[in-house]
Design a protein that fits this description.
By secondary structure, this protein is α+β, with helices and mostly antiparallel strands. About 30% of the residues lie in helices and about 40% in strands. The chain has 4 helices and 7 strands, in the order E-H-E-E-H-E-H-E-E-H-E. Strands 1, 2, 3, 4, 5, 6 and 7 form a 7-stranded antiparallel sheet that branches. The protein is elongated and about 45 Å long. About 20% of the residues are buried. The model has no long low-confidence stretch (mean pLDDT about 90).
């Protein structure tokens, strides 16, 4: 139910993102989703890829700091208020949302990747809406 996300720390300077993406391309690693947050000195690139461990290894071999962690990827229906419904369930379960980002849209829903302070409790909190979760295999 949980999927692996790759986080890559980048100096905030021209060309660093291109280097990471080129390394992944050259090692036949497909990027499914990406989120980039920045500060004046560094950036944090969060990726969902088809082979997380291979991506982590090749980036580290190329001098990039990279780590993996578990997240949840869930489909949310295309209707007004559906995101707030999901996030309210997590809030009512007293779980902190550390970050989230959109993945892509499908005809029947949009997907989000979400990291909370307690992933198991988050899944239990969302049981009432029977969400569709992505699996690690679907990310390949």
């Amino acid at each position: 139910m949980f999927i692996k996300q790759l986080s890559v720390f980048l100096e905030n300077r021209k060309g660093r993102l291109d280097e990471v993406l080129t390394i992944l391309k050259n090692h036949d690693i497909n990027i499914i989703s990406a989120s980039l947050a920045d500060s004046s000195e560094f950036g944090l690139l969060r990726l969902l890829v088809n082979d997380t461990e291979k991506a982590k290894m090749v980036l580290k071999e190329s001098g990039f700091m990279a780590k993996t962690n578990d997240i949840i990827a869930i489909v949310i229906p295309h209707k007004v208020g559906s995101l707030v419904e999901v996030l309210s369930l997590i809030d009512k379960a007293d779980i902190n949302i550390e970050y989230m980002y959109g993945l892509s849209t499908e005809s029947d829903g949009a997907a989000i990747a979400i990291k909370t302070s307690d992933l198991d409790a988050t899944v239990r909190a969302l049981e009432s809406i029977h969400p569709k979760y992505y699996t690690q295999e679907e990310m390949r």
